[in-house]
Amino acid sequence: MKGGLALIEFIDVNKHYGNFHVLRDINLKIEEGEVVVIIGPSGSGKSTLLRCINRLEAISSGELIVNGTLLHTKKVDINQFRRDIGMVFQQFNLYPHKKVIDNIVLAPTRVLGLSKEEATKTAMRYLKRVGIADKADSYPAQLSGGQQQRVAIARSLTMNPKIMLFDEPTSALDPEMIGEVLDVMRSLTHEGMTMVIVTHEMGFAREVADRVVFMDEGQILEVAPSSKFFAKPQEDRAKTFLSRLI
Ligand code: ADP
Ligand code: MG
């Protein structure tokens, strides 16, 4: 545990898609500065859980509190709320007709009201951070997948978020590009960013996670410190899941 302040708290959360019960009695508290990695089989509800955190999905019952906002109530200013939460997806979602720098300054100018000059300065700082300042004037198609994903991360960081959510950020990348994206994520963990990461990169998970959350069939079956989880998972389904990866 880090600072002791919960930034994200699920209390008895359930979610249905029609008749399908996708999240079952989720209880999870994530503290400021914590790095939590969510793992589990395909279809177990990992993306849904992540998407509830920035209200891309609504919960059906229970309570969900994120960054002091009660998301289960109706009176939520979603745009205001989402400013503090960055999300990086498997697909990079960059605008193909806009240069890298223009992709990044869009939200800070429109949403935060920064001047173009200020936003560009911040954007360049983060492009440097992710190692591709020289690509500012390129178009996304001129970049490799790994570079595009790093632009997507820089774009999120330029909004100065309190929480970063990652949903399989390296799954669409060629193997030789996975490392450069994980390096950027690793550096964020060293800076105390609160991060919730869904990934199949178990070596990375083991290294950076403060805690690992194992999900199956919409339930959290195990939550444990990374070293403990990977050395000795307690749940049979977690053991089976890990053994199949090796
Ligand atoms: P994971 O990310 O662990 O692979 P997801 O959260 O994407 O799992 O999906 C969990 C389950 O919910 C899957 O069975 C999936 O088919 C189903 N599901 C996901 N999104 C929707 C949706 N919008 N409508 C109906 N079912 C969905
Ligand atoms: Mg998913």
UniProtKB/TrEMBL annotation:
Keywords, alphabetical: ATP-binding, Hydrolase, Nucleotide-binding, Transport
InterPro entries from the UniProt entry: AAA+_ATPase, ABC_ATPase_HisP-typ, ABC_transporter-like_ATP-bd, ABC_transporter-like_CS, MetN_ABC_transporter-like, P-loop_NTPase
A single GO molecular function term of this UniProt record: hydrolase activity
Listed EC numbers: 3.6.3.-
SUPFAM superfamilies to which the protein is assigned, alphabetical: P-loop containing nucleoside triphosphate hydrolases
Name of the top EC class for this enzyme: hydrolase
SMART domains (alphabetical): AAA
Pfam families noted in UniProt: ABC_tran
Residues annotated as domain ABC transporter: 8-242
Record-stated family: Belongs to the ABC transporter superfamily.
UniProt xrefs under PANTHER family: AMINO ACID IMPORT ATP-BINDING PROTEIN, PHOSPHONATES IMPORT ATP-BINDING PROTEIN PHNC
Record protein name field: Glutamine transport system ATP-binding protein
Natural source organism: Paenibacillus sediminis
